[in-house]
Amino acid sequence: MSAGRLTLAVQKSGRLAEGGFDLLKQSGVKLAYARDALMRRAENVPLDLMLIRDDDIPSFVASGACGCGIVGENVLAEAAARSARVAGLQIVQRLGFARCTLKLAAPLEGPVQSVADLEGRAIATSYPALTAAYLKERGITAEIVEMGGSVEVAPRMKIADAICDLVSTGATLEANGLAAFETVLESEAVLIANREALNGAAATLDLLVERFKGVIASRQ
Ligand code: PRT
Ligand code: ZN
After folding, report:
1. Which atom of ligand 1 is nearest the CA belonging to 167?
2. ipTM of predicted assembly, 2 dp
3. Which CATH class is domain 100-186?
4. Number of helices (H), then strands (E), in the chain
């Protein structure tokens, strides 16, 4: 990371990458061609992109490896529940894309139809810290089964009685015979920053935020 240049962590590929690159393009940021798979340099702004998995973005920003990053609130909240350093990061700007909701869901007409029915049951999720915090707040004791993906198959495979997973259109739940009964977290992409790790590039962050705001306003 060179002094005076801002490093922005962006998902390498996926839903956040798509929206993130669109936003940067519409904000007038021109990226230089690069063979480097990890870093992309902007030509017309003192900005470098670091392309990583979305799950790694909160810790890269918290550690100061990147001054700022674009991440889903779901990933940020899960990481913040595990790390005080991540919990101390600031959301600088809400970005209005990659909207989704972390929901509790269970098989239609099964024994779990409400939060109270979760007592003593098993819940599959990729968000164990958020799920545990939610259950604790409601005084419910349940087993959390952590899964890296394909959480929606867990009830059918008898791995769990319910799931806590991201929903956008609801098509995945429907295709798997599941119905949502509770919202745990509403999420969208957000710009997070570590003000202590800006490396002399605070003005670039301000410029980026102003341009992002302009693009977001023009979309409404
Ligand atoms: O490789 P990497 O770890 O970077 O990518 P990833 O596979 O973890 O993430 P990716 O690209 O799938 O999602 C990145 C972020 O996009 C998430 O962390 C959310 O902030 C946001 N997002 C928005 C979503 C969805 N919508 C979404 N629908 N992330 C995942 N889903 C999945 C969900 O898990 C479920 O399997 O889509 C399915 C449900 O979609 P519907 O439309 O059928 O309801
Ligand atoms: Zn991920």
Report:
1. 44
2. 0.98
3. alpha beta
4. 7, 11
d(CA 182, CA 167): 11
Say which CATH architecture domain 6-98+188-219 belongs to.
3-Layer(aba) Sandwich (3.40)
Assess whether the region 6-98+188-219 and the region 100-186 belong to the same CATH fold. Answer: yes
- Ligand 1 centroid to residue 199 C-alpha, Å: 32
Can you name the residues that pair with 124 across neighbouring β-strands? 145, 163
Per-10-residue mean pLDDT, the chain, length 220 = 85 97 98 87 96 98 97 98 96 98 97 98 98 98 98 98 98 98 98 94 97 96
The best mutation among 54, 150, 176 to test binding of ligand 1, ranked by most ligand atoms within 8 Å of the C-beta, falls on: 54
- Ligand 1 pocket test, pick from 56, 97, 163, 168 with the greatest ligand atom count within 8 Å of Cβ, gives 168
Contact 5, 201 (CB under 8 A): yes
Cβ contact 197:5 at 8 Å? no
| Encoded tokens for 21 | 């690159």
Report, in this order, helix, strand and coil percent for the chain, each rounded to 5: 35, 30, 35
